[in-house]
Every structure is written in C-alpha cells, then in structure tokens.
Design a protein that fits this description.
Strands 1, 2, 3, 4, 5, 14, 15, 16 and 17 form a 9-stranded mixed sheet that branches. Strands 6-7-8-9-10-11-12-13 form an 8-stranded parallel sheet. Helix content is 36%, strand content 22%. With 450 residues, the protein is α/β, with parallel strands linked by helices. Strand 11, helix 8 (274-283) and strand 12 (286-289) form a beta-alpha-beta unit. The longest helix has 17 residues, at 100-116. The protein folds into 2 domains: 3-62 and 371-427, Urease, subunit C, domain 1 (Roll), CATH 2.30.40.10; 63-365, Metal-dependent hydrolases (TIM Barrel).
Length: 450
Amino acid sequence: MGTTLVRNIHTLVTMDDMRREISQGAMFLQDNFITAVGRLADMPPIVPDRVIDLPHHIVIPGLINTHHHMFQTLTRVIAQDKELFEWLTRLYPIWERLNSEAAYISAKLAMAELILSGCTTSSDHLYIYPNDVELDDTIRAAQEIGMRFHAARGSMSVGEKQGGLPPDRVVEDEDMILRDTRRLIEAYHDPSPGSMLQIVVAPCSPFSVSQDLMRESAALARSYHVRLHTHLAENTNDVAYSLERLGVLPGDYAQETGWLGEDVWHAHCVFLNDREIGLFARTGTGVCHCPTSNLRLASGIAPVRKMLDQGVRVGLGVDGSASNDSSGLLEEARMAMLVQRARGNPAGLSAREALELATVGSASLLGRQDIGALAPGMAADFAAFRLDRIGYSGALHDPVAALLFCRSANADMVMIDGRIAVQEGNLLTADVPVLIERHNCISQALINDD
C-alpha cells in the first residue's frame, strides 16, 4: 500500500491519551498503520505515494460497534409495540427460515450501512443457526467488504420445553455448539496487531442457554485466549427470569458462571443495581450500551453515567436491526449522549464522552489496543465528515460537538486498514444497489411466508 499523507484536516480528533484535537492536522501512514500524527510540520520528510487533502473535514478514529445481530436487517419494523420477550416470540418463527445466503447478504448489508456511518470495526452476535446457516457466512461478508470484524459465535440451547424462551426447533445441542466454536477459533481467530478477524465466544442469554453451557463456554474461551460476550439484565422481565429460574440477580449469575473479568463484555445491563455495578468495576467487566434498542423495546435507560463514574468500561453498540431498525453508529453515539440527559442531568454525558464510548471505549471491550485512536502505531482506520453541510452550519466553533449534537450524517470518507472504503460518500467495496435489491427479495420472502 505504500505511504499516505493525510493533510490540511480542518479538525483532527485523535482520541489519544491526551485527547488532542488538532486544527489543520495531518497524519502519515505507512501501509496499514499510522506512523505520525500532528501538524504538517511534524510529518516525516518523505515524499508520500499518496496525498489526501481534507480541508473541509473533521476526522475521527473509525467508530467501533460492539453489539449487533446483523441477520435482523431482514426483519426491520416488525413487532413495533412489543417488549423484549414478546418481540422475540414474534420473530423467532421468521428467523427459523434463515439460510446461508440470508445470513451472508444480511451481514453484508449491515456492514455497508455501518461503514457508511463511519464505523470501521464491528462485532456481530449470530445466535441462531437454522438450516445451513454458519458463522462462516458472516465472516465471508466481512472479508469481501473489507470490514474489521469480531465474529461472535452465539448459541441457544434451552428451548421452551426446558423453560427457555426460544422454540425448541431453533436451539442447538451443547456439545455441538462447543465443537463448532472450537472449529471457528482454530480456523479464523487472528490475535495479531492490526487483525481484521477475531472470534468471540457468545452464548445468547440467561433465558436461552444453560448455566453449564455458560461455564463451559467461559472455560473454552479462556483456553484459547479469546473474548466472551452475552446479553445481561436487558429489561425487567429478563431480571425476573434470572430471579425465578436461576435464583440470583443477573450480576450474581455472571459471577457464578465465570462471566466476570477483563475478557468479558455484556450487552445492555439496563438493570444492574449499585452492588452489581461495583462488581463489574472491580473485576474489569465491560458493558456495551445500546440506547436506541433499549428505547424501542421500552427496556429502559442503562445507568451509564453511574457506570463510568465507578470505573466500569463502557462501549457502544447499535444492537440488532430489528430492534434498532438501523445500523448507524454515529447516530447511536448521539442517542447515548441524549438519553443520559433524560435522567434529569443536562451534563449526564458530554459530546466528547459519547464519542469516547464509540471509539476507545468500544476498543477496550474488544481487547484491542490498535484501534479506537489516531496515534503512531495504531491501525489506519478513520472516518472523515464534511463540515460544510447545512446541518453543521452555525456550529463550527466546536466541530466535535457539532458531530454529536447536530443532525447525524454519513461519512464523506472512510479508511479501513489503510484502504479507502468510502469516497465522497460512496461505498467502494460493494455494489450497494445490487445488495439492497437482493436483500429486499430475501426479506420479503421471509416475511411473506410468515
């Protein structure tokens, strides 16, 4: 790839240790890593192979999404007035008709939407494997579109007959789940700096897997040094299930099954109490905040301000596109900022704190020290947004705040691993109209058969 000089940047938001914001900033890239950040005078005296001028842009680290269910892009705006358990019960019968192509196309479309929003790295929690669906389908999509990907091998093993929520026909045998998870780690997981693909061990939720599977999954993950992810304390019914069926609160369930620690992050955590938050803080356990989905399903507002103040590591996720109904990470950061203020504190979460959740906060959840900031040694992932749009006019005295407070816009340029994925607002790594057409055909077939 050679060398690249990105220069004349209106505002360069580094998210480095000093949280520098540099006017008329510049970056020097060698292949797929950053080697220098500062002003043009700070750049090495090398004639670059490529020069990119961004005088009208704010440049931020590539955004990082730490919770998604990409297959759900096929079933947006269904069960519009249901809470979590009713919503799932409505959708399981549709999702059981998914096949390999549906998993691949839905993941590719979700990734396209994410990349256009400025997201360069995403996790995806695929927990349903009907027919010929495999996690390999989503991995293929990521490799083709060029997204940095953390593929979470989800699972459901406790169906209705055993007191779980999912239908028996969509759950899997636990031994088979563990065998397939092991296969995927050995086939795909790359822990090296700049890795484009990692595998995550991710049983779905307390109401869809056994405690034995949770314990065995944690042991498997730690034997391979990969990370663990699941849902926890998403709404009051979720907490009630834990108390009635398992006899403990969600945080205690996580502790009993080995799901606390710096290698673990949980999605949602809307209803952790003060003691559980303290437990997460002491053990380094992470939380992915998914504000839009929590609002859409009337789950509530996660106490993110309290978590941050107590030292819990918090990142951001769009959640599935059947509960968020979109895959825009900058919009999710804006929502995170606003909902904390809805608790009655106008300083509940600042614009810069919200951006931090979507960058360095999310990188921490994934265990990545090579993404989430623009600094020497970091991967060459960034998103550039034009500041001369009508929606930012009048806010250029604080471009960072403008990005979060004002109308969310897609990125003008996105670079992933040193390669330009979006230029002048257009995705270069997929034929978007063709992708949309095929995605809609699959979606309509699934929904019309319902």
